[in-house]
What does this fold into?
Amino acid sequence: MEFTKILTRFENIPNSRALATYEKHGGYEAAKKALTQTREEIITLVKDSGLRGRGGAGFPTGLKWSFVPKTADTVYLLCNNDEGEPGTFKDRYILELSPHMLIEGMIIAAHAIGAKKAYIYTRCEFYDEIRWMNEAIAEAYQAGYLGKNLFGTNVQVDLDHYIGAGAYICGEETGLISSLEGKKGQPKLKPPFPAISGYLGKPTIVNNTETLAAVPWIITHGAAAHRAMGTEKSPGTKLFCVSGPVKKPGVFERPLGYPLKKLIFEDAGGMLDGKQLKAVIPGGASAPVLLPAEIETLTLDYEAIAAAGSMLGSGAVMVIPHDQPMMELLRILVNFFHHESCGQCTPCREGTGWLASVVQGVEEKTATPEDVEKLYQIAVHMEGRTICALSDAAAMPTKAITRKFADELKRSIRGI
Amino acid sequence: MADTVTFTLNDKNVTVPKGWTVMQAAKQAQVDIPHFCWHPGLSVAGVCRFCMVHVQGARKLEIACNLQATEGMIVRTDTPEVKEAHKWGLEFHLINHPLDCPVCDQAGECGLQDFYMQVGKYKSQMTRPKVLKPKAVDLGPRLILDTERCILCSRCVRFEEEVTKTGALGIFDRGDRAIIGTYGEEKIEHNYQENLVDVCPVGAFTSKKFRFKQRVWFLQEKSSICPGCSTGCKIKVHARTDRRTYYRVKPEIDETVNGFWMCDKGRDTIAHLNREHRLPQSQMRIDGKKQTVPTAQALESLRRAIETAGAEETALLVSAHYTVEEYEAFFHYFCDQLGVTKVYQWRAETEDRDSFDGILLRGDENPNTAGLRAAMRRVKGRTVPIKNEIATCVSKKPKVVVALCPEVPFTSPWFQEDLKQLAGISHVSLWTCRYEATEVAGITSWIPMKGFAEKTGHFLNYEGAKRELQEAFPSATAEALSVVEAVQQMAAIATITTETATL
Ligand SMILES: Cc1cc2nc3c(=O)[nH]c(=O)nc-3n(C[C@H](O)[C@H](O)[C@H](O)COP(=O)(O)O)c2cc1C
Ligand code: SF4
Ligand code: SF4
Ligand code: SF4
Ligand code: FES
It folds into this structure.
């Protein structure tokens, strides 16, 4: 499968984070080019490229940008670098390799949507990445890539780096906006959507780090080059984070539509000796688990994984070995969502707590086999009922595990 | 019409102004949509997720409170999916609820109970221990908060943000550990505390004053107007007629004046109506000793005193606590028929009459200053400046004074002290509901008056708007009269005595 590395093209290049290195490899040429183009031209190009949001939902990026009212005076661009989805460690890798790629992507995106001010929102745990990003921003300012009159045009883009406290819910775009506004990190009711009324009530576009970092390459190489990789509905490349007992876990940039088994068994080196594959979570903690039979021919693109009943999500491929008790996995998952629910919507607040409590009952030896079905029912009624998708994120894996591993879960409850 | 939209709600065509939500439209069309967090006087929070409706063509159920009605939209509140969502919505609300209805003041008027009967009636699946949270938290002079009963609808938080603009309340922590509270040890001390009890759809916020006093199903309610200040908030007075006891006051929705709210001061305007504070029967001072007499006797004696002294030696001292109808009857009888011309206002000597707290409360502590002023303009033929005229009245050395006393004690604490000025006037007749009036020396007679909740009529508020006391409770004291009734009685006696005299 032929493809060009976009996001990880600085792998194996020494001193890759430095501005000089980035410039030597054509850095900021795309921004220079884009700033001579009209907003519409860039949006059309990004639409044509088929780029989809890499934050989890896969929303078409160009289309999202086009929702910003053309007449708006103040518009904001926010980079979602919260990377909270368990199993996901790709955005930080971009900062590790080339933070300037993100800055350049943000300059282009800001110009396309008419934003003079942009923010990167990073969780505080990314200690080194925060430092690297800050250094890159300082360099970019010094070189005149940020600020007023960029590349001799009248375009202005200012960029700030905001450090969040590390709540999963602050990665949800409106939770991120609340947090950035200095409020408790709670998602906002939609409508209105952020593109109309977001940060400080102004039109706002929130994009994932990986999404924005892909933009310069698309400007330079064109929509067709991007579409040449991946599938028709999922063009381009994507970062996949492979974790679990495989020989070479890590981040892999692969074209969308790439075979999942090839990723696990060739690129990631296959299972550790003595481990066999029991299941795969293909797109982060909120993605339903898939059984080995379900991934036989599965390809890593939005449509194929959806058709298999799961989702590509953030591209976090979690490999589950034969000796992993599913009750334990379920417990870890529901405890995570219980801990992270912001609590404003009743089905999510109560539902995540209830799921966690029922699973806790297994440990307390008060659970009954019927609880497996109860978990499923609770999850069913948490789904599609809330302000943000955290409730769904808790419900979907619960439904999958309680359905696909019902017998095993019942056995754990009975203690056999 | 461009500024309305028509859509279908359970097969019913509903036309509402553009921009309305399905929830607002449903209210108007009297279609019930169960809800907790939506409140017509507050912004939309969309958090309880209870108001689910089915919209034809939509991928999933929508919340009615944040769903704008659009032309041709087809909405149903009764599909099996919606019913299931309501049932589960309620179950989610109740899994951690303490279900202490037997000791909860809200029982009988609780959203959880009501909706359980309406859309719930399931067998709970919750078998796990509940999340425990602080109970009976003292949050202010009038407030107790039970955070376990709280369903985190955020109405109270929004009230503090949007109405009092104090932002006093917040939701602390998250998930099912979330808890309503103030910052640090702060207490809520503003004059609108009990609205929190009203907006709270469950028994989380309870009123210290009403707490454990009465089960709400024993209460009757009557629509009236708060006599606490010149705003004239529309209220409902709650009482037990079998016990002749007043228990609480609640605001009644009135878009033009008070919206959904009232102040705490207004909530206290019923205390004086209860029997222990009331002048139960007419009294007269006979040979220096106070005696209970039939009202007819007291009124007849007043009538004789006026005849003896002459109308020109008679003065009327009138507070602004009575209705327009009462002033009409009073002045018609004393001025038009008997010929009294000395008419004086009676009110606080010093007052910050034009002050306004920016929400509802005004500095004029009289409910009917405008009504009294208009009535006086008629009998005097000129507009009088608003001020306390008791001293002027006394300086004119009248021989008879008929005083319509201020009704609400805590807004007229000067009442007894002012009355001392009347000592020395040969016949002073106090028309009052206040028992404390009998403690004043130098008074000739006391006629028991009805309180505001015991009569109909209207006040004119600070801007001259008609504020109607729509319904009346039977008086807590059997003999109490409205001014209208007292005047009728006096006129009737007078007729009889004249007739007897001519016989
Ligand atoms: C609970 C929750 C957590 C999320 N966390 C992240 C995150 O950490 N990073 C991210 O980019 N998107 C996250 N998202 C998705 C964002 O809401 C949003 O869709 C995304 O940032 C949009 O960017 P994109 O269009 O470039 O994908 C999260 C969504 C939910 C519901
Ligand atoms: S779904 Fe959960 S996390 Fe999302 S807004 Fe509602 S309560 Fe908060
Ligand atoms: S205290 Fe009452 S009003 Fe406030 S959030 Fe809880 S239930 Fe709602
Ligand atoms: S504002 Fe005035 S009229 Fe309204 S409740 Fe308070 S005291 Fe009564
Ligand atoms: S009333 Fe609509 S979500 Fe609460």
Observations:
- The two ends of chain B are 75 Å apart (CA to CA).
- Chain B touches chain A through 37 residues (CB under 8 Å).
- Residues B 226, 228-229, 231-233, 258, 262-263, 265-266, 360-361 surround iron/sulfur cluster (ligand 4) (CB under 6 Å).
- Residues 324 and 371 of chain B are 6 Å apart (CA to CA).
